[in-house]
């Protein structure tokens, strides 16, 4: 306690060098920069948006990420819903115990 331990706690993030993000590399942001310049304005933080336009993964991988986003929540929620419906005997089909309610079983 109180000393320097050999364990590294928390996530280790690799912060990229800011020089790799250039507004000039992204046509959309370059246009914004030019439009601001026409009005005598400058956005010093515009470079912070470059990463949003960089395509690092293949279209297939990006599509897969898009389709599977949220599954960590959706799948357990789906399974819990099924378990609750099974436990309480909830039936949405409309066929359930219909005959028992009317007594004679005729529709």
Could you explain how this protein is built, in words?
- The structure is a single chain.
- The chain folds into two domains: 16-54, no CATH class; 58-107, no CATH class.
- The mean pLDDT is 80.
- The protein contains five helices and no strands.
- The chain is mostly helical and 107 residues long.
- The chain starts with 26 loop residues before the first helix and ends in a 5-residue tail after the last helix.
- Belongs to the complex I NDUFB3 subunit family.
Q: What descriptive keywords fit this protein?
A:
mainly alpha, 2 domains, 5 helices, 46% helix, 0% strand, elongated, ubiquinone, transport, electron transport
Average pLDDT for all residues: 80
Taking all Cα atoms into account, the compactness measure Rg is 28 Å
- Overall helicity: 40-55%
Number of helices: 5
Low-confidence sequence ranges: none
What spatial form do the alpha-carbon principal axes imply? elongated
| Cα-to-Cα separation, first versus last residue | 76 Å
Q: How many structural domains are formed by the residues?
A: 2
Largest sheet: none
Number of strands: 0
- Helix/strand class: mainly alpha
- Helix/strand order, N-terminal first: HHHHH
* SS strand fraction: under 5%
